[in-house]
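#struct-help
A.M.: can someone run this one for me? Single chain, 241 residues.
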Amino acid sequence: MKFFRVFWGLFFIVAAGTFIGTQTGLVSIDLPIFAIIASIILVAVFIHSLFTKSIIGIIFSAALEAIVLAGPLNWNIGAGPILITALLLSIGISILFRGSGIRRHGEWVMHHHRDVYHHAIDPDVETIDGAINGHIEIDNRFTGSVRYVQEDDFKSANITAYMASTKVYFDKSTIQGDTANIHLDIDLSGTDIFVPADWNLIINVNNYMGGIEEKGRGNTNGPKVTVTGRVRMSGLTIHYV
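D.P.: on it. C-alpha cells below:
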C-alpha cells in the first residue's frame, strides 16, 4: 500500500477520534467547532507541504492556522499582518532557494531516470499514450503521482489533485493543431506541470490562497495552450523544458 494512502488514512482516523473526543468531553480543547475542523485541515496541509517541500504550502498553512487561532486564544494581531508576513517570507525564501542545485539534480534524476528514482512518498508512476481523441484524464488523491503524457495529437487534459503531490510531463507530447486546453482542479496539493518550451501557455486560473509560478518561458509563436480551472490553497509550478 502506498505510503501516502496509509499515512493520510491514519491521520484522518486520529483526527476523527480527536474531534469526537472534543465534542464528548473526553479530549479537552477549548476551541469552537469551526476552529477545530479548520485546524485539522490546515495541519494536514502543513504536513503534506513538508513532504512535498512546498514553501508556499508550509508558510501559508501555518499563517492561516495562526489566523484561525488568533480569536479563540485572544492574540492581539489581525489577519492582514499575518498574511503580509507569510507573503514576504514566501518571496524571500523562494528567492534564496531558487535554482538550488539539490532541487535541479532531483528533477534531472526524476526526468531522465524515472525507473530508478525513489523517495519517501513512493510515487505512482505511469506513462500515458494512445488517449481517445487526444484527451487525458488525471485524477490524483492522497498520494504521490508522476504522469508522463506522450501523445502525438494532444488536444486536452483534465488534471485533478486533492491533498496530493502531482507531476505531469507533457514534454514528449505534440500538438497537431493550433490550440489545446489544460483544465485544473487542485485542492491542498503541490502540482508541477512540465511543458515543451515551444508551447504558448495562456494561464487563466482562479487562484484561492495558493501560489502559481512559471519557470522559463514559452514561445509566443507556438501552439496556444489555454490553462483554466482553479487552484485552492495549493502550489502550482509550470516548467518550460
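A.M.: thanks! The first strand starts at residue 124 and ends at 128.
D.P.: also worth noting: The chain is about 35% helix and 30% strand.
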